Amino acid sequence: MPSIVKPIASHPSLLRNQLGLTIRDYEGSMSTLCAGCGHDSITAAITRAFHELSTPPEMIAKMSGIGCSSKTPTYFVSGAHGFNSAHGRMPAIATGAAAANRSLVFIGVSGDGDSLSIGIGHLAHAIRRNPKMLYVIENNGVYGLTKGQFSASADLGSKPKKGDPNRMQPIDPVLLALSLGATFVARSFSGDKEQLVPILKAGLAHKGMALVDVISPCVTFNDHEGSTKSYLHTRQNTMRVTEMDFVPPEQEILAQISAEGKTAVTMHDGSVVYFTSLPQGYDPTNRQGVYNYILERQGKGEIPTGLLYVNGDSAELHELNATPDEPLVSVPYEKLTPGAAALSKLMESFR
Amino acid sequence: MHHSTRVNDFALKLANVNGTGSASANGLLMTAIFRMGIPVCGKNLFPSNIQGLPTWYEIRVSGDGYQARALDYDLIVAMNSQTYARDVKEVRSGGYLLYDSTWPLDPGLNREDVTFLGVPLAQMCNDNFGNPRERILMKNIACAGTLCALLDIDMKVVEALLLEKYGAKPAMIESNRKALMMGYEFAKENLACPLPFRLETMRENDDKVLIDGNTATALGCLYAGATVAAWYPITPATSVMDAFTKFCAKYRKDKESGRNNFCILQAEDELAAIGMVIGASWAGARSFTSTAGPGISLMNELLGLAYYAEIPAVVIDVQRVGPSTGMPTRTQQGDLLECAYASHGDTKHILLFPANPNECFHFAAKSFDLAEKFQTPVLMLSDLDIGMNDWVTPRLTWDDSYKPDRGKVLSREELAGMAKYFRYSPPDEDFVPPRTVPGVHAKGAFFTRGSGHNKLGVYTEVPDEYQEVVDRLLQKHKAAAKYVPAPVIERREDAKFGIVSIGGCDNAVREALDRLAERGIAADYMRLRGFPFDTAVDEFLMRHPYSFVVEQNRDAQLKSLLTLETAVPKEKMVSLLYYGGFPLSAKNVVDGVSKHLQEVL
User: Fold this and answer.
1) Cβ contacts of A190 within 8 Å, gap of 6 or more
2) Distance CA A224, CA B12 (A)
3) Inter-chain touch B223–A81, beta carbons under 8 Å
4) Dihedral, B398, B401, B404, B405 alpha carbons, nearest 10
5) What is the mean pLDDT of residues B214-239?
6) How close does chain A come to B438, measured CA to CA in Å?
């Protein structure tokens, strides 16, 4: 993907995180997406989330597939390792990488074409395997790079720029993820950074796969009247269902005092997700309740957003495979080979 | 004893119904002969089915050590009425047919030149066993008892095998022993034992084991230090991962923590399996997948990514009969071209061709060294015959001084001392640039991409920059020629032509060379073991006026590859093709060569 190197101009007044790094240190190359693209706002939110979490850039693994969304990992944390792979295959590649080195911080960036069409099988099975990664779907309902075909997330009746409205059922990544047993499911809007940043931070802290569907309007091919993924339609119809704060481990005590009486979910690393506002009777840890709630709201034409469902103690990939705490890449060869004597002994069983 | 008794030189075929316990009886016979120290070869010709379809097991005993499939059956054990007519026809003239005489034979199938040996197996089992399932299973064991008497199989050896197998289940030992003795005693009392071909103890197997290629392959991956394996179930490759899983459970549990120093991922499909391998290798693990032709078809896409982005990956391809689903339980060498050039665009891969379990073991381990040294996929092409049949093979041994060749991977210290790191510069003398793995050092971070990139790893659409990289990849591939296993070349005095072959053809071709030599036809032999081809391959082909290229596919894929990848004119190569799905026999080669020689004379 083309990209333009961005000059790093750091201002002394910029906030430094625990590593002494400013937000500039978490930026990447200049975006080559269309001006006004929702994806660029998501990039900015991701940049902020990593900065605020003080993640060492070189420990970040940025994984993506193919498409406009998948280009974005070049646009944040240039000091991280990136892997812009093949269309739809990112969940599989990320799973393998996560299996090999669990000490890396994985973020997968995908789109609705990448994740809901060509790669839907991989997404579904990655959810089952539950590798620890933040999985962001930048959802705009169209294929941008090939000039505006509907994707599988296009809503019933949504109008394309040219041609007939969509008449096929959309695939909703949030409902899909919930039905597959995903352990962290959120939806947000690229234009709502205030909501998105804490969700991304909580997703990065989540022990397992955190799926975040972000409605991210395509200004070029899907931002017209009649489109259900336009800025206007999204702004008018999103409904913040849950409001939450993400509190990292070191601030926990302080936050507990102020968060008295609120629903809290403790993450495996000690950080806490505080739900500051929830609808009456809404339990973000009750999968079936969340599913029913979203379905009901969507039936009314609303787009419920927020951290919708979280299961703080799910078994992630490494627990499921009983691997050691140290990354497999760090296990020395001496521990991996049974040695000549063992082989000689084993050969007796083949006689 | 007959005047013309042949000792340790005959072939028998057992016709069974699958799912009736015949595999266990066949294994018992095969192992007993192996333990008698006699060179033996067993081939399972089985259907793609769980229960109820015809299945055959061939046992060839050869004191001279020939291990290819024999087509002249001295004895056929016809235990399957569905295939009875076919089986009767296959007995060689003067041979024997053993059948279950509980039911009368169709007199129309009788052959004057074959001796029919009737044993009331079903009757005996019905009379002696109460449980209906046992009655079926024990028929095969009783039949094995009969064969012990007819062929002079050492009953002490068989007894020991039963004890080892069912040691924990006395009831099983008892019923097996009873059935075995029933068959044995019936034969001793009613049939002329032994037959004019029989067994005699030898000492040929002291340093040998009986192992299948897939198990040996799994051991190679284990010893190479593979930690992440991803796969999708497929015949005939499944037993590679089954064995790897078993060995990991045995040898890879961390002594202190009890945790698994491995991660085996059963993927949703082969697209994901290779994706996981590429991800794990990118992150710095040794990783592999095992599959067959249909899986390779699906992996094509990401093999191109690994080739272009220069990521190691090890793929074990246990070939079966294609195209499409083909015949999953039959053998072929039909994936050569697909693997050599897997993926769209200009791609070329490193291939290894093992011919036996020993090579499966060593080549599997070597695949990881080559994949990491050259930062590219390496495909090892085994086949169903090598992979799923038990072979008498020298004991596998390991050299403890082995150190994995991780290739040019920059360490934390090396990176710290660098001004700036670029992924694809500078290449070494083998055209391989330095690689980094994530999380080692901030300076090692780079952006991996399957899209156009220049020698610095930066996105490009500039023709010269693009070409510079893919030209280096071509040179890198060529450089691998001297690192892949060299061809095995055997010369004979006065050789008039050459025979070139590959992988699972080896046993049949070697035997054919001896048969031809007996007729005064001497040929040199070259068995290819790796791609890209070394200059020795060109030299061999150029040295001979012509060479037969023996392979198991319809389209002469090896010959095509030789034509494309050497300077040898294709007129110098004559194809001998065998691709029906059963393993190659020396007879196929001898007949093919003879036919050609007659035609040209």
Assistant:
1) A38, A39, A41, A42, A45, A138, A196, A214, A215, A216, A217
2) 77
3) no
4) -120
5) 98
6) 6
pLDDT digits (tens, 9 = 90+) for A239-262: 999 999 999 887 655 544 444 556
Closest CA to A343 of B395, B393, B422, B257: B395
ipTM confidence: 0.96
Which part of chain B is CATH 3.40.920.10? 6-198
Residue in A with minimal Cα distance to B303: A86
For chain B, give the number of residues: 601
Task: Return the CATH superfamily for domain B211-394.
Answer: Thiamin diphosphate (ThDP)-binding fold, Pyr/PP domains (3.40.50.970)
What is the rounded average pLDDT of the residues A260-269?
78
- The C-alpha atoms of residue A199 and residue A137 are separated, in whole angstroms, by 13
Select from B518, B256, B316, B273 the least CA-distant residue to A125. Answer: B273
Contact B81/B34 with Cβ under 8 angstroms? no
**Selection from B240, B291, B330 nearest residue B583 by Cα:** B330
Distance of alpha carbon A48 from its chain centroid, rounded?
14
Q: What is the pLDDT of residues B457-515, one digit of tens each?
A: 999 999 999 999 999 999 999 999 999 999 999 999 999 999 999 999 999 999 999 99
The answer on pLDDT for A103 being more than 90 is: yes
Q: What is the pLDDT of residues B407-428, one digit of tens each?
A: 999 999 999 999 999 999 999 9
Using CA atoms, how far residue B499 sits from B381, B556, B576, in Å, is 20, 14, 10
Q: Could you write out the three-class secondary structure of A255-320?
A: HHHHCCCCEEEECCCCCEEEEEECCCCCCCCCHHHHHHHHHHHHHCCCEEEEEEEECCCCCCHHHH
A332 touches chain B (CB under 8 A): no
Q: Is the domain covering B488-600 a CATH 3.30.1360.70 domain?
A: no
d(C-alpha B350, C-alpha B375), whole Å: 11
What whole-number distance in Å separates Cα of residue B473 and Cα of residue B433?
A: 10
- Are residues B508 and B524 in contact, defined by beta-carbon separation less than 8 angstroms? no
Backbone angles phi, psi at B531, to 5 degrees: -135, 135
* Residue B175 confidence (pLDDT) above 70: yes
**Mean residue pLDDT across chain B:** 96
Cβ-nearest to B404 among A333, A338, A342? A333
- Tell me, which fold does domain B6-198 have in CATH? Pyruvate-ferredoxin Oxidoreductase; domain 3 (3.40.920)
Question: b/e for A158-187, b at 16 or more Cβ within 10 A?
Answer: bbbeeeeebeeebbbbbbbbbeeebbbbbb
Within the 103-122 window of chain A, which residues sit less than 8 Å (CB to CB) from chain B?
Answer: 103-104, 121-122
B62/B10 Cα distance (integer angstroms): 7
Q: What is the pLDDT of residues B57-87, one digit of tens each?
A: 999 999 999 999 999 999 999 999 999 999 9
**How wide is the angle at C-alpha A293 spanned by C-alphas A290 and A297, nearest 5°?**
140
> What's the pLDDT at A259?
47
- Our count of domains for chain A comes to 1
Residue B269 has its nearest CB partner, among A121, A323, A340, at: A121
Detail the DSSP E strand segments found in B433-539: 447-449, 488-490, 497-502, 523-528, 530-531
Ordered alpha helix ranges (H), B389-505: 412-416, 463-479
Q: What's residue B51's pLDDT?
A: 86
Q: What is the pLDDT of residue A252?
A: 54
Chain A residues with CB under 8 Å of B445 CB are: 57-58, 78-82
Q: Look at residue B196 and tell me whether its pLDDT is greater than 60.
A: yes
Looking at chain B, the whole-number percentage of residues with pLDDT higher than 70 is: 99
Is B254's CB within 8 Å of A324's CB? yes
Structural domain includes residue A16:
no
pLDDT at B256: 87
- Residues forming CATH 3.40.50.970 domain(s) in chain B: 211-394
294-323 in chain A: CB under 8 A from chain B: 317-318, 321-323
